[in-house]
Amino acid sequence: MGLPVGRDPAGRARAELFLISAVVTVLVTRGYLAATGYPKIGGDSGLHVAHVLFGGILMLVAMLLVLLTFGSAAERLASLLGGIGFGLFIDELGKFLTSDNNYFFQPAIALMYVIFVIAFLAVRLAPPPRQPQPEVCLGYAYTALADASLGRLDTVHRRHALELLAGCEQDSEVTAVVELLSRERAVPEGRVTRAGRWLLRTTQRLLLTRVAQWLVIAVFVLQAIALIADVVVSVVEQDPGVSTSSNFVDWATALTGLAVGALSVAGVVQLIGRKRLAALRTFHLAMLVSLLIGQVFLFAESQFNALPDLVFNLLVLAALRLTLSAYEARAAAGS
Asked: Taking the model in full, what pTM does it have?
């Protein structure tokens, strides 16, 4: 017997907001503490108010928002505050894992990264229902009507609700809700939303140009050369006196780099052979291997010094996702 709940079609976006705000909070917190010399709230009074307490308070506020209010705006605010609170909590992971409350426990950064990756994969890879259930469609539509009662119903929310209702089994209740939603006046999209959509479309068009494709080839060729060269140097300069744990991290990093380099070479060969869709999928796989496996060992070894590499990989992955979705849409339209 399953839980008496339905999956919210807008839940993925809120979960991603939660995770993004948590990651940004960790980065901002660590950066601020490093820049200010790790000050303590409480000073020399003998008290130390850890920021995990503020994280707990924010998560409590987020929970109370969900329990005491309604409307998508309140849900988004709860996701944001809950993510900030979770970021403040997880940032002190090293203290929870060591007997001496060591905030600088080296594996903590890698463990944080693994936790965020697992959470992100759970959100992104959860299979959507094959056929929307009528109760799920109606539940989402009623949240749209709740927003309308608050004067906060936007065009995207209404359109999505109407599309869901059109795809489920029609009955008198569905018809009545469709009529109500169709009559409700939606709030126009804000300037920020419109600017974001324009930026997304413009970026996608630029990524489909020939210049962008040659840049992709250049990036992955250079990456393949750098990674394979790094593996060779690591093997040649390996010090047998280094501890087993360090050897393991070095070898794991080297093998992951070799795999990413090999995939990059394979993708370049496919792209030169005009197999663009296959090449993009290979490049995408290379970035996923780097992010989901290689980056863990980089954080374990270098901690936040691995952050620039993470940012670069995320930017490349985002560009690949946009380009890949455009090519897949073209392939689907041509079939």
From this structure: 0.70
